[in-house]
Each structure stands twice: as C-alpha cells, then as structure tokens.
Amino acid sequence: MKMLMAIVQPKDASKVQAALAKAKIGATKLQSTGGFLREGNTTFMIVVDDDRVDQTLAIIKENAKTREQFVAPSAYIDNAANAVPMNVQVGGATVFVLPVDQFIHF
Amino acid sequence: MKMLMAIVQPKDASKVQAALAKAKIGATKLQSTGGFLREGNTTFMIVVDDDRVDQTLAIIKENAKTREQFVAPSAYIDNAANAVPMNVQVGGATVFVLPVDQFIHF
Amino acid sequence: MKMLMAIVQPKDASKVQAALAKAKIGATKLQSTGGFLREGNTTFMIVVDDDRVDQTLAIIKENAKTREQFVAPSAYIDNAANAVPMNVQVGGATVFVLPVDQFIHF
Ligand code: NI
Ligand code: NI
Ligand code: NI
C-alpha cells in the first residue's frame, strides 16, 4: 500500500479528481498554497494498493501533465492589436510516493 | 515513530481532537475536502511513538467510527407527516499509518 | 529522498518559506490549524534528496526555532502602568522526516 501526494495546478484539479473517482480511487484534497515554483496549487492525498500505483500515476499524468497551450494575446498584454497568439506551458504535476504500513477503516 | 493520517467526518472532528488532547497526543488538523466517498472531511496528522499507535487508533475509533443514527423525517423529506424516523449510517474514519524516520523539535 | 513535514508558527512561516526558496528547496504550504499545543500553525510539506535533509533542517531551525522575546506589558495586561517588559517564549518548529519511495514529475 502506498500514499501518493500529488500536487497539481488548480485548473487541472477537478479533472484529476473526476478521473480518479471514475477509477474508484479515493483522493482527499488538501488545501495548499504555493511552492516557490507556482503560486496556487492543489494537493491530493491518495492511498492505493501497490498494484494500482502505476494506474494512478497514469491518470494524474493524463489529466495534469505539463503541456503547451495557445493563449490569445489579449490575455497577456493590453495593446494586443498586432500581437500573435503565444504558446505557453501550462499544467504540471509533482507526485511523491510514500510507503504505508497499515490502512484501517472504522 | 509513526505518522497517522486520520480522515474523519467534520461532525466527529472536535470530539476526536479533544480526546487526543486529553491523552496528550498531538494532532495537527489539515484543511481537506472531499474524497469521492464523502464531501466534507477533516484530516488529522498525528505522530506518536510505536507503542502508542494502538491507543491512538482506539481513540479515533471510539470517537469517529461508523454507527447508525436515527434521523427525524423532517431532516430528509419535505412532506414528513406520515414518515417514520430513519436509521442512517454516520461517521466513519479512515487511517493511514506511515513510517517516520526522524522527529525533530527546535 | 525524504519528505519533511514541518509545523511552524504562523509568524515564522514567511521567513521559513523565503529562506527555503532562496536555497531552491521546494515547499508546499498546507493550511492547518492547531495541535493541542498551539492554536494556529503552518505546515510545510518539503521533499528533498537525502543529502539535503540537514541543510533543510538548519534553515527551519534558523528561522523558526523557539526563542525568548521581550513583550511590552501593554500586550498582555490592561493596566500596564507599573508593569515591566516580560520575556516570553515564541516560535518553535516540529519536523517529521518520512521516507519517500519515488518522486515523479510530469
Ligand atoms: Ni513542472
Ligand atoms: Ni467509511
Ligand atoms: Ni515547542
């Protein structure tokens, strides 16, 4: 049994949560703020059997991985008349896998 | 030394916290929201010596375990005139026990 | 690789965060409230390579350790005319070091 602490961008959090729920993987969302790399973030605490770690990582990757996205100039500059859409990096997930000794449900 | 991550229902959180404090077991409450099993919840981060894990689990069980409770019909339906009290499950705690390498206090 | 859960006083949190960032040590701040020892607190979740654990602990100690501080009487009593400044303990950090099996970045 492993605990995964998965830190994702807020914009990807609901997609990740829905995909985990669909796979019947329980995830508790901890309210978290900034690492020094990014201001806002969402931390999921997930516990799964060892043989589901890879599936869980695949779900997180699928829904939160770093990717490029076109952003309309109006989104990042005021005088956007002659500007072209910009390709920016969004998303990105950091996952720590910790050993779990015991799981108890009362 | 072990870290216990204990996820309980919000309605049981203050009872759990008071009982742990009475037993001089330190608990930090992390603000958390929903697993897919339940919308609101409270996560306690507890660290204890190995020989106090069982006592800590007993306290959590005593104060947060799943149990049945009668709910007045007015609480769950609008037109409750002919309804009878309903037996519903409340509470429930999930606890993960993790190994701790080191504990430091400055 | 180790995960450090560091619980510090809110008044020391921004100093700790800035010092960790300066050392390029990523820290995610979890919103937390009270252990029974103290009402407010801040929990940092930090993951570092084994050979940086000591440096991380030193930074936390430097910025959040228990120390004495003079407090003006007006801060703790109403009728402070004849009172003298009081030496009080402030700060204090509790750090748990947990083993990490795996670190993944997508
Ligand atoms: Ni990244
Ligand atoms: Ni349950
Ligand atoms: Ni202390």
Please state how the strands of the largest beta sheet of chain A are arranged side by side: 2-3-1-6
Instruction: List segments of chain A where confidence is low: pLDDT < 50 over at least 5 consecutive residues.
Output: none
CATH class of the domain at 2-65 and 92-99 in chain A: Alpha Beta
User: In angstroms, what is the radius of gyration of chain A?
Assistant: 17 Å
What global shape of chain A is seen? Answer: elongated
Helices of chain A, by number, come to 2
Oligomer: homotrimer
Bound molecules: nickel (II) ion
**What is the succession of H and E elements of chain A?**
EHEEHEEEE
CATH topology of the domain at 2-65 and 92-99 in chain A: Alpha-Beta Plaits
Helix content of chain A: 10-25%
Biggest beta sheet attributes of chain A: 4 strands, antiparallel
Number of strands of chain A: 7
The greatest inter-chain interface is formed by: A-B, 23 and 28 residues
GO molecular function (chains A, B, C): enzyme regulator activity
Organism (chains A, B, C): Limosilactobacillus ingluviei
InterPro entries (chains A, B, C): CdAMP_rec, N-reg_PII, N-reg_PII-like_a/b, N-reg_PII/ATP_PRibTrfase_C
Protein name (chains A, B, C): Nitrogen regulatory protein P-II
Can you give a write-up of this model?
Chains A, B, C: One of its GO terms (biological process) is regulation of nitrogen utilization. Chains A, B, C: GO terms for molecular function: enzyme regulator activity. Chains A, B, C: Pfam families: CdAMP_rec. Chains A, B, C: It comes from Limosilactobacillus ingluviei. The structure is a homotrimer of 106-residue chains. Chain A is built from 2 helices and 7 strands, in the order E-H-E-E-H-E-E-E-E. Chain A has a domain at 2-65 and 92-99: Alpha-Beta Plaits. Chain A is α+β, with helices and mostly antiparallel strands and 106 residues long. The model of chain A has no long low-confidence stretch (mean pLDDT 86). Helices cover 24% and strands 44% of the residues of chain A. In chain A, a hairpin with a 2-residue loop joins strand 2 (27-35) and strand 3. The first copy, chain A, is elongated and about 60 Å long. Chains in contact: A-B, A-C, B-C. The interface between A and B is medium-sized, with 23 and 28 residues. Bound molecules: nickel (II) ion (3 copies). One nickel (II) ion (NI) binds next to loops of chain C.
